[in-house]
Amino acid sequence: MKLLLWKTRPRISWIGILWLVFSGLVHAQTCYTSADMDEPTRTALESAGKRYFDMAARGDAASLKQNAIASLAGQFSGIETAVKDNQASLSGAKPAVRSPFLLKAEGTAALPRAEFLCGVFAKNGQTANSAEFILANLAPGSYGVVTLDATGGANGPRTVSFVLEQQGQDWKMGGFYVKDPQIKGHDGNWFADQARGYKSKAQNHNAWFYYVEARELLVPVPFMYTQLTDKLYDESQTVKPTDLPVEGNATDLSGAGKTYRLTTVFPLPVGNDLDLVVKYQVADISDTAKTFQENTAVMKALLAKFPEFRDGFDGIVARAVAPSGQDYGSMLAMKDIK
């Protein structure tokens, strides 16, 4: 058994836990859209999604646990936290079920990378009504992806997605994702337009991160890809930074007479703000007063090198990461970084 969290990058607006079995290779992957699957299967998936949404909206984590696959039920604290954190947003909201997807992985062993192509694809790739799902370490079986759009809740719209695994006649919960599809009242299309605007002003670093945010906002789960997100990915490659750590590389940043090794930089919604998070390596974080000063120095150095970030973000979160993986973070609004 293995716990899998699929994320394009760390961010708190994704809440997803998927617990699946893995061991080797899958020989075939097939995706059925709502139009492709039979009526009883489509109805069962939609009904399961509605039922589990109702449990989450009531804060009934116990019932969700009872209906989870055994391996997930055995370590359910992450789901319980997600349910508690999102109950206020879901309680009183009206859910509308999107057309579900049915994913079938065949064979006798799992696939490290299972790729499902859903709907009609053209010679150049995806079409307006297609989708692609890429999952790691997926065991043979039948899985459903059900997304509900929840409107009318206390905290604005949310998308709620469940990954379901078929066990006998039942569809058990294997994954739970809750997402705010907007930041500061703006959706993914707005962020894509802003990215193009930053690109036209040669603020390519802002453009890159806004493309990243646009793509994340336009899909309900981080392992789903559409024609639009593929298009935005292609656009973003023209502004991909070489002087910041993106897609796994690390870079150096000089400031205050020191050189800092940056490991990750990504945008992060915090309340009604959009902040930029930067993680960097340190030998020790036990002296928090000293680490706070180091964090501040990193923020100042980042803005000295990339002043455009003052236009694109409300603040910076610097996190010093020790060799053990423990970190210490500080956050400052842009106006306070001088």
Give a topology summary.
Elements: E1 2-4, E2 15-20, E3 28-32, H1 39-57, H2 61-66, H3 70-73, H4 77-90, E4 94-97, E5 101-106, E6 111-118, E7 121-122, E8 125-126, E9 131-138, E10 141-151, E11 158-167, E12 170-179, H5 188-200, H6 204-217, E13 224-225, H7 227-236, E14 251-255, E15 258-270, E16 273-281, H8 288-305, H9 309-312, E17 315-321, E18 327-333
Parallel strand pairs: 16-17
Antiparallel strand pairs: 1-2, 2-12, 3-5, 4-10, 5-10, 6-9, 7-8, 9-13, 10-11, 11-12, 14-15, 15-16, 17-18
Helix pairs in contact: 5-6, 6-7
Calculate the mean pLDDT score and round it: 91
Number of domains: 3
Q: Tell me the series of helices and strands, N- to C-terminal.
A: EEEHHHHEEEEEEEEEHHEHEEEHHEE
The proportion of residues in beta strands is 25-35%
Give me the secondary-structure category: alpha+beta
- Largest sheet, if any? 8 strands, antiparallel
Q: How many strand segments?
A: 18
Rg over alpha carbons: 21 Å
How many helix segments?
9
Query: What percentage of residues falls in helices of 4 or more residues?
Result: 25-40%
Low-confidence stretches: 1-26
Distance between the termini: 49 Å
Silhouette: globular
Features:
9 helices; 338 residues; alpha+beta; five-stranded mixed β-sheet; eight-stranded antiparallel β-sheet; 18 strands; 3 domains; globular
